[in-house]
Amino acid sequence: MPEFRAQDLSGSVFDEVDLTGAVFRNVALEDATFRGVWGTRLDLDGDFDEIVYNGVDLMPLWRAEMVRRHPEFALLPPHDADAFRELWPRLEALWSATVERARALPPGLLHERVDGEWSFTETLRHLLFVHDAWLRRAVLHEPAPYDELDLAHDDMHALDGVPAADPAARPSLDHVLALREERLAIARGLFETLTDDALSGSTSVTGPGYPVADTYAVRRCLRAVVNEEWWHHRFAVRDLTVLEAG
């Protein structure tokens, strides 16, 4: 679960409160309980182990539907080297088709945010950071993995060694894709030679940066990359649909 810097309301009780139309962003709901709530629609976008609705855990149903819609979702999270090898080319193929879809839009729209979320270009820049952090820094131990266009979450910029994002940056899609192809080639080569023994090992990260200096399971590092690739692709497709509709 991520850390939160905002007001801590853990343990609070909300009784007789009207939250119609409320928007919650970056909110921790660990073990939250809702009783006597009602509404016509509840839109959740996040990560839960269980969502119990009137005594029924909805997560197995949700996962089955995700696999029906997106067959590659059955491989998430990958448990062995072969699963990583099977999943990675599927992720690259998904993104390849989506990039071509994005190219059909006016270039300026690729810097437009939808509902306050990252733009298409910013999403790709964030994935540069994901690769640089979890593969090049954590697994391959490169001393200076980051590019100036890497885009980390705002709370990560406070960490020593993490590049600060330029809010006015408007790099071209081709420029960002050239940087991305370098990262994809590194990931491709790593997954092609990955073994179960290497996957079950650990890696020690030192020096300032993100992830912070510590020892991490290699499986955790590689899962971070494939999970971010899959989920941010889903978000990108969602927002492209809005941009295409004008």
At a glance:
It contains six helices and four strands, in the order E-E-H-H-H-H-H-E-E-H. It is mostly helical and 246 residues long. The strands form two sheets. The chain has a two-stranded antiparallel sheet. Strands 3-4 form a two-stranded antiparallel ribbon.
Alpha-beta classification = mainly alpha
The CATH level-2 architecture of the domain at 80-244 is identified as Up-down Bundle
Uncertain stretches: none
Q: Mind telling me the C-alpha Rg?
A: 20 Å
Oligomer: single chain
Mean pLDDT: 92
Task: Count the DSSP helices.
Answer: 6
First-last Cα distance = 35 Å
Secondary-structure map with pairings?
Elements: E1 52-53, E2 56-57, H1 59-69, H2 81-103, H3 120-137, H4 173-193, H5 196-199, E3 202-205, E4 214-217, H6 218-244
Antiparallel strand pairs: 1-2, 3-4
Helix pairs in contact: 2-4, 2-6, 3-4, 3-6
Notable traits:
246 residues, mainly alpha, Four Helix Bundle (Hemerythrin (Met), subunit A), two-stranded antiparallel sheet, 5% strand, globular
